[in-house]
Amino acid sequence: MVSKNEKIEIAGRKYKTADLSDKAKTLLEGLAKLGAKSRENANMVEILTKAKKAYMADLKGEMLRAKAGFDFSE
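^ that's the sequence the OP posted. Answer follows.
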């Protein structure tokens, strides 16, 4: 929900959200939801990248153990 006292800036001009039309308020709320979803997706990419690197490190260690016949983790 858009706050009554909130202001937004578009192209260098500031507008009170209370003065916006209902359609503009709906669009603004949609934009806020998209921004939140974008941040959520960016965080998920970071998490998955960390997981990928961990899996790759484990795989590399497993391959070295298999090749050398020695467990390097101990």
